[in-house]
Design brief:
Helix content is 34%, strand content 14%. The chain has 17 helices and 15 strands. It binds adenosine monophosphate (AMP).
Length: 489
């Protein structure tokens, strides 16, 4: 299928061609006709699937119909509001909006916190149709009466689950109360927790559910390896592995907590490996600078938490290292999706201590792959790692036989393990207690994975195909997602 078959106007098709896209991605194929037809949408898709163009292209198409050529700011009210959880994501979305709207007489801007409001106020005064915003700063403008939202026709809530993680849902509810009831709304989220369903129920009218296959299917250009290692030796092993990588290779390292994130980056820096950390406690300014240093190659290693790394548009990397395995197997897939893109070769390396064995089992079940285990000589795992373990473990004899010297001041395994305990209590996103095989969105890893290209609706038509196919009216989304007992309003 080509973009021209989706019913987009020539100005948008031209921008898409100039962006170098040959054909729509699955989420675009599903979402574009549904949004063009004026339906509300609940979209299950992550960054990297092309979801931004999936909602921006049809949005621009709909806005273009009544675009005003007038120079008067009053003729350019805010008609579309796109909410994103972080400044980085808002900026990425804004860049896409600018790119796809470059042949249209539509004005757009991006407003986010942590910077002076005045330039944003000047910009808003010009009259802007499309505002991409983070919720807090948008409310600041509302309070100062520097933005009016009473003519908003389109609302897009991007990464709703992350909004929830970051505590933005009350702000979102406040913003919803300021918008006209008669509007088209789209909500995108990687997971559908009860809170998200509740929000969707409040915000969307008879939405169509669109979901692209979970990216559980990992690219086969990625090679996976697990290094069983005791937790106290992990940092030294990490430094050792990085030193044995090509000097020019940049590496993204994932950790569980903000605290571990900064500490690990300092550790690497102290040992001659240029590294920086990105996590939710850093200011927007610091996060942007860190990301830019990494993208420009000034910093070789970026240590990140899952929450901070989500939504970051980091180019393809030759390798990703999991300093700790993630708590949910799906996050493993997200993490390693930063490597091995577009047919390139990638390496996913995980340092796994005995207490993480069950996470490894969940991951292997999800990706349907028994990952090769290699003990790097001198970096042995805890003795209990070996109990009842599988057969694919081998010693990595190509690595130097001597352990890297333990830097001065390093603690022993046992004390390191003890000192790590409080870090785990500082996870970025609160996680509910649930059995290990149940993900935050209720996905059950103990069941075999089935690839989905769309959720079957009650009329048996895959969601997203409904605009071109006749269909019965959709049931309220809450019903589709398990029932909340409240009708969408
Ligand atoms: P997103 O999931 O929206 O963050 O998009 C991820 C990346 O895919 C961005 O760099 C887009 O420029 C790119 N992209 C979006 N749609 C397409 C397409 N149809 N073909 C190729 N690349 C695309």
């Amino acid at each position: 299928m080509s973009f021209s078959e989706l019913g987009l106007i020539p100005e948008i098709l031209q921008a898409v061609t100039e962006a170098g896209y040959n054909e729509p991605t699955p989420i675009q194929r599903q979402a574009i006709p549904v949004v063009l037809a004026g339906h509300d949408v609940m979209g299950g898709a992550q960054t990297g699937t092309g979801k931004t163009a999936g909602f921006t292209l049809p949005l621009l198409n709909r806005l273009a119909r009544h675009a005003s050529a007038s120079t008067s700011p009053a003729r350019h009210p805010v008609r579309a509001l796109i909410l994103a959880p972080t400044r980085e994501l808002a900026m990425q979305v804004f860049e896409s909006v600018k790119m796809y709207s470059k042949h249209l007489p539509l004005r757009s801007t991006c407003i986010y916190g942590g910077v002076d409001m005045n330039p944003q106020i000047q910009e808003l005064r010009r009259g802007i149709e499309i505002v991409v915003a983070t919720p807090g700063r948008l409310l600041d403008h509302v309070q100062q009466k520097t933005i009016a939202l009473n003519q908003v026709e389109f609302l897009i809530l991007d990464e709703a689950d992350r909004m929830l993680d970051m505590g933005f849902i009350p702000d979102i509810r406040r913003i919803l109360a300021l918008l006209p009831a008669n509007r088209q709304s789209l909500l995108f989220s990687a997971t559908f927790s009860d809170e998200i369903k509740k929000l969707a129920d409040q915000m969307l009218k008879s939405p169509q559910l669109i979901e692209v296959a979970r990216r559980n299917m990992v690219s086969d250009t990625i090679s996976h390896v697990v290094h069983p290692v005791s937790s106290g030796l992990k940092r030294n092993l990490l430094a050792h592995l990085i030193r044995h990588e090509e000097e020019s290779n940049q590496i993204l390292v994932f950790v569980d907590t903000k605290f571990a994130c900064s500490r690990l980056a300092h550790f690497l820096d102290r040992h001659g490996i240029s590294a920086d950390a990105i996590h939710g406690d850093k200011s927007q300014q610091a996060r942007t600078e860190t990301l830019e240093s990494f993208k420009s190659g000034k910093v070789r290693v970026l240590v990140a938490t899952d929450v901070a790394a989500r939504g970051l548009d980091i180019e393809d990397l030759p390798s990703v290292i999991n300093f700790e395995l993630p708590h949910t197997a799906e996050d493993y897939v997200h993490r390693i999706g930063r490597t091995g893109r577009a047919g390139k070769k990638g390496k996913a390396v995980s340092l796994v201590s005995a207490e993480e064995r069950h996470r490894l089992a969940d991951i292997q079940k999800l990706i349907k792959l028994e990952i090769t285990q290699e003990i790097v000589p001198g970096f042995d795992p805890e003795p209990d790692f070996l109990e009842g373990e599988g057969s694919r473990r081998r010693r990595n004899d190509s690595a130097p036989a001597k352990p890297a010297p333990r830097p001065a001041g390093e603690t022993s395994n046992a004390s390191d393990r003890r000192s790590r305990r409080p870090e785990r209590e500082q996870r970025e996103a609160p996680r509910s207690r649930r059995p290990g095989h149940i993900a935050s969105d209720g996905f059950d890893f103990s069941k075999p994975y089935e690839q989905k290209t769309g959720i079957k609706l009650d009329d048996g038509i895959a969601a997203g195909q409904t605009a071109s196919a006749p269909h019965k009216p959709q049931r309220p989304i809450a019903f589709l997602l398990g029932g909340l007992g409240r009708k969408a309003s």
